[in-house]
Amino acid sequence: MNPKFEAKFTAEGFTRLAPIQTAVYDDLRQGKDVLGLAPTGSGKTLAYTWPLLEQILPGDGVQLLILAPSQELASQITQVVRTWAQVLDLSVLAIIGGANVKRQQEKLKKRPEIIVGTPGRLLNLANDKKLKLHKLQAVVVDEADEMLAQKETLADVRDLVSRGPADSQLAFFSATTTPVLDELHRWFGVDVVVKDVRKIDDTQGEVMHYLIETPVRKRTDALRRLANLDDFAGLVFVKQTSTLKEVTDKLRHHKVPVASLSGEGRQVERQQALAALKSRKIKLLITTDIAARGLDIPNLPAVINYDLPRDINTYIHRSGRTGRMGATGMVINLGNEHALRNFRQILRTGDYRVSPAFLIAGHLALRDEIGYLDARTGDPLDLQTQTSKPAIKKNKVKNKAQVDTKIAEVKPKRKKKRKRDQKNKGMRRKKQID
């Protein structure tokens, strides 16, 4: 590692390299094309940042291009890379959709060495001759399984790569494999060195996986009850933006601190929503798979699948938002009996251990032979005491005089009531006779 990086490495609190960082370092430094496979939250960004930054010359224009599938991930990568680029006097610019394009064009005139962005906006600027890639040394495709699985995005990535020199180095990183990653030679004309550390990586903390059986119409209520748990916050996944808006509106109606994250909102609003979850100003952030891909939310307590994922790869990426870099977390899956039964079949292909859980008396609970346990702490729950109605407090009687006084106070009221009832009864009889 560059000596300047070593000093910062220690200052940042690192003690050792993660498996993916060790696996790809030498190959990337030597200019080889690489496919890196590692679990979510295992340090993939730094795995390509350190060796590729060492090859860049300050003041020589764009030499490193990093592609991401979403604005949030591109912004996140930019922050990480910039921290280390400053050590070598290199500048980093984020080029993403949703931001002011004219401002981006002005910043490109300052000739940054590293560009991080989303393919669509980058391609637009390249077509307008605002982004010049003739000095490109390396291209990184982050979240490559998602980026290259879609034909349109695959075409955009290939177009951008073709605008650089023919010998530009290519690096692909992902947490899961898809068929397209086995065809990189076909699409990019390169033979990659595959570094797969998923089975040996130990950076992820303990993550528990729970199933909560609930009718479809009651899932939003289950979210409300989860939000009311102490010290709870979660990233909630839905499939469609229409569902996202509907769920968000319902939770706000019930005064739940919540925000949404989608590809349709303004960049500022999306950043504010993420910041609110990180600072725990909100309890729940409702999002879609694309919007949340690759996000790093430190110490996120939970991921909640409002809509169950369609396959194991989607589940891996969703659950990877919690339990990152040694932290603990949980994944809560909501569905009715039929949906959960089918979902178990999907989870078996990923070797996940799942447990039925219940929302009872303000707790997320597990059931064992003896009773219920708190799912987060493992402590026994005395639900009978917690759910029982509070006893009605009665005034204690100290002596017989007090009793006689109370009876005396009550008797006249009862006597008056009896006289009134008799009078009304007599009047009704008289009417009947008449």
From TrEMBL:
What UniProt keywords apply to this chain's record, in alphabetical order?
A: ATP-binding, Helicase, Hydrolase, Nucleotide-binding
GO terms for cellular component: cytosol; ribosome
Domain Helicase ATP-binding intervals: 25-195
What molecular functions are annotated in GO for this chain? ATP binding; hydrolase activity; RNA helicase activity; RNA strand annealing activity
Q: Show the ranges annotated as biased composition (Basic and acidic residues).
A: 401-411
| Residue span of region Disordered | 388-434
Q: Which InterPro entries does its entry note?
A: DEAD/DEAH_box_helicase_dom, DEAD/DEAH_RhlB, DEAD_box_RNA_helicases, Helicase_ATP-bd, Helicase_C-like, P-loop_NTPase, RNA-helicase_DEAD-box_CS
Q: Which GO terms describe its biological process?
A: response to cold
Classification via SUPFAM superfamilies: P-loop containing nucleoside triphosphate hydrolases
Record protein name field: ATP-dependent RNA helicase
Species of the source: Ligilactobacillus equi DPC 6820
